[in-house]
Structure formats: C-alpha cells, structure tokens
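Let us work through a complete example step by step.
Step 1: write down the sequence.
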Amino acid sequence: MTINNKNRRQFLQHTAVGLAAAAFPGLALANKGQFKSHATRGFNPDVEMEITARQGYVPVLRGGPHTKVQKYYSKLLKGPKDTLQHLKSNYLGPIINYEKGQKVRIYFNNALSEPSIIHWHGLHVPQKSDGHPMYTIQPGEQFVYEFEVMNRAGTSFYHSHTHELTAEQVYKGLAGIITVTDDEEKKLDLPRGEYDIPFVLQDRIFNNRNQLQYLRGMHGRMSGFLGDTILVNGKPNVEFTVKSRAYRFRALNGSNSRIYKLGWGDGTPLTAIGTDAGLLEKPETRPYIMLAPGERIDLWLDFSGRSVGEKLVMYSLPYTGAMPPMIDRRKKSKGGSSRGMGDSMMGGMGMMGSGLAQGAKFPIASFKVTETVSDSPRLPKHLVNFERLSESDADNAHHPLPIAISMKPMRPMLNGKSYSIDRVFDFERVSLGSVKKIKIFHDHGMKKGEHGKDKGMAGGMMGGGMMMSMAHPIHLHGQQYQIISRKPGGMRLDEYATVKDGFIDSGWKDTVLVMPGEEIEIIKPFQDYKGFFLYHCHNLEHEDLGMMRQFYIY
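Step 2: predict the structure and record it as tokens.
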C-alpha cells in the first residue's frame, strides 16, 4: 500500500498528537474537534479578519509571464481601517498593523492543495494561536486564531509553519510583516506614515519563464537555499525615492537561509532603533548590521543634508565563516560565485544555477533623494524604558538549559535529536512563570553531560565536527529573551572578525545568529501561557529536516 506525502503527514500528525495527549494529559490535546478550531463565545475581538492561503499569479519580474506563487489574501471584518495594508501586485501578504492590548480573531482558510498553518513570528500568544505544526489544517479546512496583542511596539512577521513544508511554502510567498504600536512609542517623535517603510529582504531563483525554482536533493537542503535574485518587498532592483529627512525602515530577513551584512556603499554607519519585536532603550550605531533569517532590525535612515539627485546604495557586505570551511574555501577560489559551492558539496543538485554565495557582496537596494525638506524628526537619545534581565533573575543560573546545535551527515539536530511532536526532554519541561538561563552552542561530534556540560570538547571540534559547522539562526517561540553573553569559539576567529561588529544584542530578541564555534547565553521568561512552544533553526531547510524541538510549559 502506497501512502502519499499528504496522507503520511496527516497520519503522523494525528498519531503524534494522540501520543502527546497521553504523555501530557493536562493539555487535553486529543479533545474531539481539536483540528476543527472554532470562534470562542465570550471572546469579543477588537480586530477580526479573514486570511486565505491560495495559489496566485503576480508580476514579480518585468516582462514575460506572471510568477506562480502561494499567497495570503486577506479581508478586514472588524477593526481600524488601517489594520491591513495591502501591497499591490505582490506575493507578500498584507502588512498587519496592531496596537498593544487589542483582542484579535483571525479566520485562516487553507485553499491550497497541501496542508498549512500560520505562525505569528515574534508575537507572544497562546499555544493554540502560535502556529504549532500540531494544528496544521488540511486543504479546505479553517482554523480560528484568538489572542490579545501583548507585545510592546515593534516589528514581527507571519509565515507558514507546516512541518516539512515550511521552507517551500515560505519560499513560494507565504509570509508578511506585522507592526505593533503602543502608547510609549506614540509619545516618541519617530517617522510615521509614508516615512515608516517595510524592508523585507528575500532571495529567489527564477527560470526563463519567470517561475520560481527551488531546491531539490538532500545535499542542497543541508546547506540551505541561496538564490541569485535579491528581492526587497517582493520586487527586484528596488530604488526608494526619499526626501532629505529621517525614515524608519523595518528590515526583516525573510530569506530561507541567507544571512545579510547590511551596510552603506560609502561606509556611512547604520543606526538601529529596534530589534526583534521591540524598540531599543536607546539607538545604537554600527559600521554594519548582521541580519539572519527570522531577525528584524528597525533602521533609522537619515537623508538630511543630502542633495537632490544624490544616490546611495545599501549592500550586503562581504564576510566569511558562516558556511563549513570546505565551502568557504571553494567560494573564495571561485571569486564569490556559489556555482563552485554547489559543485563541491551538493553535487550540482542544490543550487540550480550560480546563486550568490553566502557572504558575497551584492547590492540590496538604492535610495535616491528627490526632494529637499526641512521638517525631519531628530534621533531620540532615549527610546523606551527597558527591563534589563540578568543571571540573578534566572532560577537556574548555574545550570543553564542547553540548545546544542549539531550537523551530522544529513541530520541537522538540536540537543542530539530530530523533531518529534510527542517527545520532550526533562530539561525541556519548564514551569509557568519561571525565568531560565539558556546556553546555545555547537555540539558537532562532542559528548555532553547533563545540561550541556562539556566533555571532550577539543577532540570533537578538531575532529569531523568543525568541518560540518556553519552559522545557525536559532528562533525561540513564545516570549522574547535577552542575550547576556556571546563567546566566540577558539577557531575561525579571523572569519569571526568579519561579522562581530554587526550584532546588536542589547534588545529583546526571539532569533539569534550563532556563528561556528560560538556560545551564546540568553535569559528567557516563560510567562502567561502553558503548552508546547518550539525552538528551532530558522534556516528553513534545516527546520524542515528536523532541527527543531520544543519546550513544554506546565
């Protein structure tokens, strides 16, 4: 008897959820109608909308046929009229604008020919509204999300989160940006309206008929997808026309696996006012800013004093060390082209063409000054009051929870295991209301004791492990966290020097880039909601291959 992929996923989903219900009876996961979510009586939403995922055709490239995509089509049923900001002729879903404290209900309809579910990346919401794969719905079904917006002002996004289909569905278009505002932000003189602009970065490969081409083959998926066409807000070769004043650009890395090193072509530093889903306490300026898949950075771009006709170009600047050493060496020998990378490690299967290599230099977008104005806000010295967490806030300061990254051949894993919906380690069981210290580190070939204590580190790193080591953006669902330390490894430090000045670690985060050999310690609250909350690599190919696990908050 042959079981197709769709039926296999549905069977595994229901079977695993049944096992999870037996293991965690307090969650009552196996209640009848679990996958048929309905609106809750007594929940009175301030915002109500309908989102439908379905196939569509949009003009991505100039000339030739429209591109076949998967797209979120949305309709506002209740709430402020500016809640949804539709992007014309675009595969990206509409910008969703929330205010802190709003109650939200969303009817999600799956009009695709395959399973799907939406994750609200960066929003602090209940388990049932978080887009956990256990809630994946089949074609023709509807899922109802209900939650209160608890986040402070900042930038988040939403995207498909169907296990084993996340990477391809996001690649085909199932993503969009979210903004949240609050009273504290409204008191600030920040750029608003036409001066508050999305900056969604993605890379793609198109064939000669303007159709998207995606990875095929395990070797390519192990490295992650890298395209040869850079898109900004769903369009190639973007030029922004700007006035001689300050703007807020909400940068989101919506790529599957590409890591950007944002910087101006003329060397002007970049100023950030916010990180993942939250404003910073005060602005921070860097010579460049690293932006990994899933990360967001709110940029303060000030064109004051620039002359009409002046043009600036933002690049992804060159860097090294994000890929395994054999790939980086091959890239250098080929002058930055990833064709050599594909030939050397993927047997030509992964890249389908000569995509831009990880760490190559390329232009992202240009900015042309078209008008001189005098009314520009000044960069605030102080942005928002900030609750700074420290080790003293954690109840496990001397025994951090581990997130151990490993890349065994064809098996990217966390804490030595691939994703399983019905399994949780003892240390992944976290009591509601606790604050935990977590250590994220590379564990290629090493043996670890309880809670990640090192045993035989040198042997593991000097053995085959480091040859598999690459950068991983680690995303934790649920509440944001703060970074308390970043320790580079004892190897590849010359390569680490090409990225180290681009990390902004002082704000609230939900995704952090972990470079090869690096160890990062974070403090994360587990408040408000019980249930299963995922943590995974946001290299989406790695996530689909099982580089994902979950905390069980009880």
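Step 3: interpret the result. Residues 25-34, 335-353, 446-464 have pLDDT under 50 and may be disordered.
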